[in-house]
Specification:
Radius of gyration: 25 Å
Largest sheet: 2 strands, antiparallel
CATH architecture of the domain at 46-70 and 114-220: Orthogonal Bundle
CATH class of the domain at 46-70 and 114-220: Mainly Alpha
CATH superfamily of the domain at 46-70 and 114-220: Cytochrome c-like domain
Strand order of the largest sheet: 1-2
Number of strands: 4
CATH topology of the domain at 46-70 and 114-220: Cytochrome Bc1 Complex, Chain D, domain 2
Structural class: mainly alpha
Helix content: 40-55%
Order of helices and strands: HHHEEHHHEEHH
Strand content: under 5%
Length: about 260
Amino acid sequence: MLKLIKSLGAAALFSVAIVSGASAAGSAVELKSATWQHTGLFGTYDRAAAQRGLQVYREVCAGCHGLNQVAFRTLADLGFTEDEVKALAKEYTFEDGPNDDGDMFERPGKPFDKFPDPFPNEKAARASNGGAYPVDLSLIVKARPGFENYLYSLMVGYTDAPEGFEMNEGMNYNAYFPGHQIAMPAPLSEDAVEYADGTPATVDQMAKDVTVFLAWAAEPKLEDRKHMGLRVILFLLLMTGIFYAAKRKIWSDVH
């Protein structure tokens, strides 16, 4: 038991050292701040922006980053029709099986499938990215301090390193990344995509759009939760009024 306690204590100290070292690696940076329609008590997702963000994800981000917690069918919540969802899912291929002969086979995607990972495993992902492991983006907005503002700032924060700043080999300078050195090169460039609705595809616009889409991916039931919360508050206010009136009625003749 004593050995176990010592081991746990050593592990805890090691964890603290890692966190402290990571914090010391880069000074705190104030993130860029943008207005997000879906935040606030009555906020709802900007579906036009989210649809554009899906396009940015598919054409720019999906080559390295997965989205394996998001099923194609949930895109109906963003305004896509059933036929559009089916057509999009069919653009992907999935391994399925076994069939009657015991063999695995490939089939086109279906609405119940989730966005596939771009790599078969972590080692393949690292081998294709100079040793860095591209994170899955399903929950990225909720997984980083600053939430939407962090991701947006990161997307637009690539710039040349200031004079005297020593860059490690294979790293890229980002004004908003802790330590300012990130393995991922700048993913966005002017007109990297061509929006179907004619919106100019500036870096800033694409960064905001993909952030809105990934915010939805991380919490697709946000609007339902807000609506339920408002109904609960109204119900509690109503019941409070009823109970207060009943109390006044019951105790009206007591002095």
